[in-house]
Write a structure and sequence with these properties.
about 90 residues; 2 domains; 3-stranded antiparallel beta sheet; 2 helices
Amino acid sequence: MKTTYKNKRDQYQAEANTQRIEKERLQRELDSIKKTQAAPKKGFECEIYCSNCQTAYSAIVPYAGSVKDSGCAYCGKTGTGFFISLNKTKRY
């Protein structure tokens, strides 16, 4: 259903309001994404394998023992992950 306007000014004003509302919505969405992203972690980049869900993934860990403490990035179960490799050259 197309809206009809009395004159062009009303049409332009309605379009501007629609664009403004969309821009504000996108800005709110961007702000919420920025808030949920955590600050970069300090530590070493490593490959971790989870024996529960059988997945390998890359992560940044502060020390070698922290893999079992943090839990799997996919299934969330703790105590199932172990190192495949630790890249000591990439320190964050």
